[in-house]
Amino acid sequence: MLKSYPLSFFLFILFFTPTISFGSYFEEFGTKADSLLYRYQNADSDREKLDLLSELVKVIHYSDSAQKYYPEAIRLANKLGDHELEAQNLNRLGVYYRNMNLQEEALKLYEEALVISQKNNNPVQIGHSLNNIGQIYFYKDLFEESLEYYKTAEANFLKVDNKEGLAYNYTGMSPVLGALGKNKEALEVINKAIAIRQEQGNERQLLVSKFNRSVLLMSMGEYNNVEEDILNLYHYGITYDKIRAIHALEKLVELNLATGKISQAVQFAEEAKALHGQRPNSESIIEIYEMMYELYFDRGNTAESKNYLALLEEEKEILSAERIKNYLAGLTIKKQKDEIAALSRENELMQSNQKFKMYITFALLMLAFSLFVALSIYYRSYKKEIFNIRRLKEKQLKIESQAAELNRLNIEKDKIFSILAHDLKAPLDSLWGMVKLINEDNLSQEEFESYLPILSQNLGNNSMLLENILIWSRSQMRGMNSQFSTFNLYQLVEQNISFLSGSGYYKDQILENYIPKSIEIEADKTMLEIVIRNLLTNAMKFTSAHDKITVALEEEDRFYTVSVSDQGIGMTEAGLSKLFGHDFYTTSGTHHEKGTGLGLLLSKELVEKNRGEIWAKSQIGSGSTFCFTLPKS
Question: Cys-Cys crosslink for 156: which of 123, 148, 302, 499, Cβ 3.0 to 4.6 Å?
Answer without folding.
Answer: 123
